[in-house]
Amino acid sequence: MPKTPDTVLPDPNRWKALVFIALAQLMVVLDATIVNIALPSAQQDLGISDANRQWVITAYALAFGGLLLFGGRIADLWGRKRTFVVGLLGFAAASALGGAATNEAMMLGSRALQGAFGALLAPAALSLLAVTFTDVRERAKAFGIFGAIAGGGGAVGLILGGFLTEYLNWRWTFFVNIPFAIVAAAGAYFVIREPAGGRNRSPLDIPGVVLSTLGLVALVYGFTRAESDGWAAGATIGLFIASAVLLAAFVAVESKVKSPLLPLRVLMERNRGGVYASLGLAVIAMFGLFLFLTYYLQIVKGYSPVMTGFAFLPMIAGMITGSTQIGARLMTRVPPRLLMGPGFLVAALGMLLLTQLEIGSSYAGLILPAQLLLGLGMGTAFMPAMSLATHGIEPRDAGVASAMVNTSQQVGGAIGTALLNTIAASATTAYIASHAAGATNEQLLQAQAMVHGYASAIWWAVGILAVSATIALTLINTGRPGTTTIAGGGADADAEDEVKIPVIAH
């Protein structure tokens, strides 16, 4: 007999637990953008060179993206609550180190430590959320709230980073993590109860850890080098080749070892595979938009950092509405692909509006409606997509499956920033070359070329979102969740009580 939610008594503290889990995820997502705002001030104070300033961002991304699979496996091995608390306290300590940094090495080391502890924290948080909510409808509501908070964290980071940098100093963009982490850790310790069972106590797959970490680091770093050195540079090509070899070796090892770090069965189920691919691609498009709109608003429009953060609020409002009012309400009534496919297409429509971007474009007439469409589409699509993250997964693989979705999004974010930025830079250079002869105002030409570059790259983002929608509509075939299953599917879906909701954390 399939197991119904009624056979599991709900945790009386489940809504309190959601507060602390969402708070921890908000802290991790905030950190992705809050440091960007503070970077110019920190660079000047610490004497970091222009060539090395990218490492303040890259050190975090490399550690986080490279260690996520390992972090998910540790959560399965140690227990989710313990891993969650350790990750929070470690993240707080690393943040304190960054805020107190007196030189470049101390800053870069603290960022790498933040990424490493974030890789422990993120899969554990998602796994805890999933096992805490056992009722289908409550789970959808909880995941809607969680997804909206985490999805909006990037723009909140822009606002908070702007305020802290302008009115205090850049060090507070690190110190602000400490109270977040301490409150979340204390709440987790006293409120969260992890259900018995579900741990994977098999020995660690050390070769898998080494190969996956090095392969993902090489891939992320390869895209970072492509952005700065160009796609044809020897170092860029070498890193991509090394990544391909290492990841191929990782797949070969995982197919043979007794207790693999990433069991290939996690990847091969078509619904999970569709989620990994479609979300990873959608993040490529989304990260590129954040980058271009931030530069457009500050450089072309002359917005301050604080104003720029507030300018992103319509996208966040759309995400919250899409997640809690559309996705969460409909995900128990219609098949996931009928929310994901149209959701990505609505987001693509918002992107399509932004291809019309010009120097004199109106915020209210163009940017605001585009952001609303993008937020509504992404919020609606992310909810059912996240609920399928561990469709039909065995409880012992829950942590690593959550980590796999986070990994696809981290890699997607790195690819999106590098790929779309490189496309924009190439289009900008070509525009200047073709219009330089007749130009009378060089400053105006530079601004026109920059906006043309952004619009050209956004066309690629439209196409990427269309591909995401196509993947969702063709690969994902599970039915709507019923009263006997969590993620939809057939009668053998007992293990689906372990569904998790991975979200963007970079």
Mind explaining what this structure looks like?
With 506 residues, the chain is mainly α. It is built from 17 helices and no strands. The protein has helices spanning 14-46, 54-78, 80-99, 104-132, 136-167, 172-175, 177-191, 206-229, 234-254, 264-268, 270-300, 305-311, 313-330, 337-354, 363-387, 398-435, 442-475. The two termini are 41 Å apart.
Give the SSE layout:
Blueprint: H1 14-46, H2 54-78, H3 80-99, H4 104-132, H5 136-167, H6 172-175, H7 177-191, H8 206-229, H9 234-254, H10 264-268, H11 270-300, H12 305-311, H13 313-330, H14 337-354, H15 363-387, H16 398-435, H17 442-475
Helix pairs in contact: 1-4, 1-5, 1-7, 2-3, 2-4, 2-8, 2-16, 3-4, 3-7, 4-16, 5-12, 5-13, 5-15, 8-9, 8-16, 11-16, 11-17, 13-15, 14-15, 14-17, 16-17
Question: Summarize this, please?
Answer:
The protein has 17 helices and no strands. Helix 2 (54-78) runs antiparallel to helix 16, helix 5 crosses helix 15 (363-387) and helix 13 runs parallel beside helix 15 (363-387).
